[in-house]
Amino acid sequence: MVEQTSSAGFYEYNKKYKKYYDSFPEREEMKKRYAAVFDLRKCVGCHACAVACKSENNVPLGVFRAWVRVVEKGVYPNVQKKFNPRICNHCDNPPCVPVCPAKATYKREDGVVLIDYDKCIGCGYCIQACPYDARFFNPIRNTADKCTFCDHRIEKGLEPACMSTCIGHARYFGDLNDRVKEKPGRAGRCACFYRENT
After folding, report:
1. What pTM, to 2 d.p., does this model score?
2. How confident is the model at residue 184 (pLDDT cuts 50, 70, 90)?
3. How far, in Å, are 41, 55, 66, 169 from residue 133 at the CA level?
4. Which of 8, 10, 69, 83 is most buried, by the most CB atoms less than 10 A from its CB?
């Protein structure tokens, strides 16, 4: 049975993390704000993004930083396959940050959420806190791991590996304060936007 949190308990929880949530710069204050746009109408489900990410970041077998979720919609005989590309959403207020006892997970000034692998103790709290299942335990490093927007590439002015390999041109990356090639569609309080047929 799931324990319900009272409104007083919820208030205390929010009060406890108020300083944490207030510590992130507001969107308008950020000099750079990196984001990704996924056009779900264009994804063909080839998984080139997952392969490019694994190759670029040396991701171990069995786990993924970038993946494509396949969803079947409709009722037979009118069934369609839909492809939903996924990565870490680099949330505006990432729930993975405050739960880290080692302070290994952090958010940069440009909105990219990263892990300091030298500090990470592999406890898995951040993995459990992620509402998008975008984190995993890296069995080689013995740490948590996730998409980094290929921070080593964006610092050189390149796109993340998954974006530059997409044959359907379903993935876009850029600085929201500068430009984005496509207007974002449905979005939450994250740095990833999903455009679909609506």
Report:
1. 0.78
2. very low
3. 23, 21, 11, 24
4. 83
7-195 has CATH 3.30.70.20 classification: yes
| All structural domains of the chain with their residue ranges | 7-195
Q: Hey, CA dihedral for 109, 131, 96, 59, is it positive or negative?
A: negative
| Tens digit of each residue's pLDDT (9 = 90 or more) over 166-182 | 999 999 998 887 754 44
Strands (E), the chain: 34-39, 67-75, 78-86, 105-107, 113-115, 136-138, 143-145, 171-175, 186-187, 192-195
- Torsion (CA) 156, 157, 161, 164 in degrees, nearest 10: -150
Higher pLDDT, 10 or 159: 159
Q: Encoding tokens for residue 51?
A: 């392969």
